[in-house]
Specification:
The protein is of the alpha+beta class. It folds into 2 domains: 215 residues, 2-Layer Sandwich (Antithrombin, Chain I, domain 2), CATH 3.30.497.10; 144 residues, Roll (Alpha-1-antitrypsin, domain 1), CATH 2.30.39.10. It has 10 helices and 14 strands. Helix 2 packs across helix 3, helix 2 packs across helix 5 and helix 2 packs across helix 10. InterPro entries: PEDF_serpin_dom, Serpin_CS, Serpin_dom, Serpin_fam, Serpin_sf, Serpin_sf_1, Serpin_sf_2. It is found in: Secreted. Belongs to the serpin family. Keywords: Glycoprotein, Secreted, Signal.
Length: 418
Amino acid sequence: MQVLVLLLWTGALLGRGSCQDIASNPEDSPSPESTGEPVEEEDPFFKVPVNKLAAAISNFGYDLYRVRSIESPTTNVLLSPLSVATALSALSLGAEQRTEATIHRALYYDMISNPDIHSTYKELLATVTAPQKNLKSASRIVFERKLRIKSSFVALLEKSYSTRPRILTGNPRIDLQEISNWVQAQMKGKITRSTREVPSGISILLLGVAYFKGQWVTKFDSRKTSLQDFHLDEERTVKVPMMSDPKAIIRYGLDTDLNCKIAQLPLTGSMSIIFFLPMRATQNLTMIEESLTSEFVHDINRELKAVQAVLSIPRLKLSFEGELTKSLQEMKLHSLFESPDFSKITGKPIKLTQVEHRAGFEWNEEGAPGTSTNSDLQPTGFTFSLDYHLNQPFIFVLRDTDTGALLFIGKILDPRST
């Protein structure tokens, strides 16, 4: 069987450095101008302000995912980094210069020149949460009881993020009910009510919630869904419902450096999912995870080629409810939990004490209304067929095609875990 091999590079147009330093002293290296080599220009895609901002906060998302994956080496990982980034970006409106710089560096804002980041962020949120995208994402800042908040901060928060802060009552039952009601309203009831109590001693609580249920551009035939083996490793297998399409059109490439097969499937609303499938069930996912950046995924999106495949994908429904406090402290944001300066919010010393994240994600056989199970897409230049079976641990990335924004990311070690 012929195999399509794509050479995918990991250079960072927006990142803080390449994987290999050419020389420790810049003076030791000849400049491109002196050698006659062409100077690499920024991809036009990233010259659009909203796309560049999307790349920045997506790189934050990949950083957050890597920390979570290390913390959860034997379990599934599900994150919607956008909702967490939005809460942090909104909080930075109330930070003085030192604290603001800490947040902005984590969000990669220091790598872009945008005098009006928050207005651009508002444009990004409007794009990725448009009704046709099927994404629900919301963030909220919750403050300790009886805190006097400056009206200037509230006005900025409403202007750029269309949200108002919440002040706790001090009654755990009432506060839990109010937060659960807010989540239900924002997610249209798609995420179950929380049973987690609001902890005592909260100064600042950040809450990021998101839900997505994808619709494929070409739906799967439910009659072809059956229980099949999913290889947890080389010795253990479990039975899971696998959706199948013997004549699927996918965009595909084989990354020889990462030793993984990459496939992209389109979703309605200019969304797509990119799958990273290792060649072996026992292969460590770390190399793939370390390569993930906005720029790398953008290049994958450009380089994959349409092919016909015998495709099988586990039917999936995942949820996450928990804290990301420790994860963010690991990302050089520990000063926000110790001695930050949020004097643009209030005159009282306050600090970040907890970050909560709730996410729901699912896909099944459903496709766009009126679509058939046969795609109108045709492979371009390739007439061979290949097998692509997501029947072992894999990583997936849900990406907004219009802006390049990372919306969800997951590590699936066992599709049965919800």
